[in-house]
C-alpha cells in the first residue's frame, strides 16, 4: 500500500489529459498528457460500446499546496466513462489550499460519464475545486460530484475547514449552469436550514440531454433528501445525507435505472464499484 505524504513533504503538482476517440466501431482512450502522480489503469471496453477508465492518484491523498488538473475529452461519436477506485481524501492543512481543476469536453455525437467516488474533506482541510463541462448540443453527458465532510466514525466532525467549489456547464457555448459554493471562517451554511442543514454529505448529479419524462423517472428513484429539476435540457439532482455510501448507492442505482431512457443503451456498472 502506498503511504500518503505528510504535511511536511514537498507539495505535488499533477496533470492528466485523456482523450476518448472512436475508430473502426470501437472507442479507445489515450493519454494526451501526463505529469506527476496521476495515472490510469488499462481501459475496459463494455458491451454497450463504452470504454471505461479508472483515474488513480497513487499518493493516496491530497495535502495543502497540492494541485491536480484533469482534462477529459470525448471526440466525435466516442463513448467513455471515468471513475475512481476509491474515495479521494483531502488532508488537514495549516495554511495552503489543495486545488483540483477538472475540464470535461464532449463533442458531437459523443457520450461521457464522469462518475468519481466521493471526496472526503478531513477536518482542517482547505480545498478548492473548479469544474468546467463543455458540451456539444448533440453530445450526451452524465456526471456527479459527492463531497463528504469529516469522518464521523473516526471522531472527525469537520469542526474546522475551508471549501470553495465552482462549476460551470455550457451547451454549444451557452451557459446552462454556473454555481459557486464556499465557506471558511463563517460556517453558517453548514447548519442553516437554507444550507446543508447539519448534513455532512452533499451531492450534485447532472445529465444531458434531459426532458420532463426523464426528470420524473429520476424522481421515482430518489429518497428523501434528494431533489431533481430541469434547467432547459439539463437534469440537475441535489442530495444531502449523512452516509456517503448511501449517496453513492442511490446515485448509482438511479443512473443504472434511467440509462437506457437517457442514452438509448444499457448501463454497464464499473466492476471497481463492487470491490
User: Main β-sheet: number of strands, strand sense, barrel status?
Assistant: 11 strands, mixed
Task: Give helix and strand order, one letter per element, not per position.
Answer: EEEEEEEEEEEEEEEHEHEEH
Q: Tally the helices: what do you get?
A: 3
The gross shape turns out to be: globular
Q: Residue share in helices?
A: 10-25%
* N-to-C CA distance: 16 Å
List the uncertain runs: 1-8
Q: Any idea what the radius of gyration is?
A: 18 Å
Q: Tell me the number of strands.
A: 18
Number of domains: 1
| Average pLDDT figure | 92
Instruction: Please identify the structural class as seen in this structure.
Output: mainly beta
Portion in beta strands: over 45%
Characterization of the model:
There is one protein chain. With 275 residues, this protein is mainly beta. The chain has one domain (27-265). It contains three helices and 18 strands. It has helices spanning 188-191, 212-219, 244-263, and strands at residues 13-23, 26-35, 39-40, 44-45, 51-56, 67-74, 79-83, 88-90, 98-106, 111-115, 119-121, 126-135, 140-149, 162-171, 174-183, 201-208, 226-231, 234-241. The strands form two sheets. Strands 3, 4, 5, 7, 8, 10, 11, 13, 16, 17 and 18 form an eleven-stranded mixed beta sheet that branches. Strands 2-1-6-9-12-14-15 form a seven-stranded mixed beta sheet. A hairpin with a 2-residue loop joins strand 1 and strand 2. It is globular. It starts with 12 loop residues before the first strand and ends in a 12-residue tail after the last helix.
Amino acid at each position: 500500500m502506498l503511504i500518503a505524504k505528510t504535511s511536511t513533504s514537498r507539495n505535488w503538482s499533477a496533470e492528466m489529459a485523456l482523450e476518448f476517440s472512436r475508430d473502426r466501431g470501437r472507442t479507445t482512450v489515450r493519454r494526451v498528457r501526463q505529469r506527476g502522480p496521476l495515472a490510469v489503469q488499462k481501459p475496459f471496453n463494455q458491451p454497450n460500446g463504452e470504454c471505461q477508465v479508472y483515474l488513480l492518484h497513487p499518493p493516496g491523498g491530497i495535502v495543502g499546496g497540492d494541485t491536480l488538473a484533469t482534462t477529459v475529452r470525448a471526440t466525435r461519436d466516442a463513448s467513455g466513462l471515468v471513475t475512481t477506485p476509491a474515495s479521494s481524501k483531502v488532508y488537514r492543512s495549516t495554511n495552503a489550499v489543495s486545488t483540483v481543476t477538472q475540464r470535461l469536453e464532449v463533442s458531437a455525437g459523443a457520450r461521457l460519464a464522469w462518475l468519481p467516488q466521493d471526496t472526503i474533506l478531513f477536518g482542517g482541510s482547505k480545498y478548492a475545486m473548479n469544474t468546467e463541462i463543455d458540451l456539444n448540443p448533440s453530445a450526451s453527458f452524465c456526471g456527479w460530484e459527492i463531497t463528504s465532510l469529516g469522518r464521523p466514525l473516526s471522531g472527525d466532525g469537520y469542526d474546522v475547514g475551508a471549501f470553495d467549489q465552482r462549476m460551470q456547464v455550457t451547451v454549444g457555448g451557452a451557459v446552462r449552469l454556473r454555481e459557486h459554493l464556499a465557506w471558511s471562517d463563517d460556517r453558517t451554511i453548514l447548519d442553516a436550514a437554507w444550507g446543508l442543514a447539519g448534513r455532512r454529505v452533499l451531492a450534485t448529479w447532472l445529465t444531458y440531454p434531459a426532458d420532463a419524462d426523464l426528470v420524473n423517472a429520476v424522481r421515482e428513484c430518489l429518497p428523501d433528501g434528494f431533489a431533481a429539476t430541469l434547467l432547459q435540457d439539463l437534469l440537475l439532482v441535489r442530495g444531502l445525507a449523512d452516509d456517503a455510501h448511501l449517496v453513492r448507492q442511490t446515485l448509482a442505482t438511479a443512473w443504472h435505472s434511467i440509462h437506457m431512457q437517457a442514452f438509448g443503451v444499457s448501463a454497464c456498472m464499473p466492476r471497481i464499484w463492487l470491490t
